[in-house]
Write a structure and sequence with these properties.
This protein has 259 residues and is an alpha+beta fold. It has a domain at 1-45. Helix content is 34%, strand content 31%. The protein has helices at 2-44, 87-99, 176-183, 187-201, 213-222, and strands spanning 60-69, 74-81, 105-106, 124-137, 140-151, 155-167, 204-205, 208-209, 229-233, 239-245, 252-257. The strands form 4 sheets. Strands 3-4-5-6 form a 4-stranded antiparallel sheet, with no helix packed on it. The longest helix is centred in the N-terminal third of the chain and has 43 residues, at 2-44. The protein is flat and about 115 Å long.
Length: 259
């Protein structure tokens, strides 16, 4: 009887050892393997590098803001592209803006056409100035720079459009060719949509068409990006063409979300 008990006890002891062995095997091969995979997955995540020069500020911000012509809501402000590698571009943009001060013409210095009256708080007859439009959407950072000249009699006239679309992950400029490819848009499709826009917005002045449709299309077709046109990304993630419209009154800027 004692021998039987001993045999039974030995069998139970062996079974317990087997359970521990099998359990340990599964723990080592499954639990630790899963943990290892989770750790490897964590290690495999590519953390986005900080591309900003100053991580406490936006990707694009403005400084040295001052009024030029308050009643016309025209300001002077330096734009800062707060991205590493854009230091030289920022310096160039600041120098361009500073040079505008030299082109300011006061009312006292100007020869005003007979019969015209020109008055404003700043006593300015004409000057160049710059406006900005910036957006951040997904992986895109966009900046559009519009250069104008202001004349006390005729108002504001767009002179130049340029801009940058930047990859928020790398801090690199995305070329126009790459943007068109990524969004599946061709230059011909852009011209078609611009022509439709101009036809829809055409107005008559004493029977004469104000918008020079053919002249505008020709300038955009033959002009370079950074002079009469620029691409950007809208707040909703659409590709946008910004362009100059020729007019027999005064040239102005317009934009279209491309589809």
């Amino acid at each position: 009887m004692d021998n039987t008990k001993n045999v039974v006890g030995l069998i139970f002891f062996i079974i317990i050892l087997l359970l521990f062995a099998v359990g340990g095997y599964f723990f080592m091969n499954y639990m630790l393997d899963d943990f290892s995979k989770e750790s490897n997955d964590d290690n495999g995540i590519t953390e986005l590098k900080e591309i900003r020069i100053d991580a406490t500020k936006d990707y694009i911000y403005y400084e040295n803001i001052e009024d030029i012509l308050h009643e016309e809501h025209i300001e002077k402000q330096d734009v800062v592209i707060n991205i590493k590698g854009f230091e030289n571009i920022n310096e160039s943009l600041a120098q361009e803006l500073a040079s505008y001060d030299e082109e300011m013409l006061s009312i006292d210095e100007a020869t005003i056409p007979e019969g015209e009256v020109c008055t404003n708080e700043a006593n300015l007859y004409s000057f160049p100035y710059r406006e900005y439009q910036d957006t951040v959407f997904g992986d895109y950072i966009s900046l559009v720079i519009n250069d104008f000249t202001y004349n006390c009699i005729n108002g504001s006239r767009i002179e130049n459009i340029k801009g940058y679309v930047i990859d928020k992950n790398t801090g690199e400029i995305i070329t126009e060719e790459q943007l068109l490819s990524d969004f599946g848009i061709t230059e011909e499709e852009i011209l078609t949509q611009i022509r439709e826009r101009l036809n829809d917005t055409q107005v008559l002045d004493e029977g004469t068409q104000v918008i020079d449709i053919e002249g505008t299309i020709s300038d955009i077709q033959n002009g370079e990006y950074g002079t009469v046109k620029s691409l950007s990304i809208s707040k909703t993630g659409e590709l946008v063409i910004n362009f100059i419209v020729k007019s027999n009154v005064i040239n102005y800027n317009d934009s279209i979300e491309l589809n």
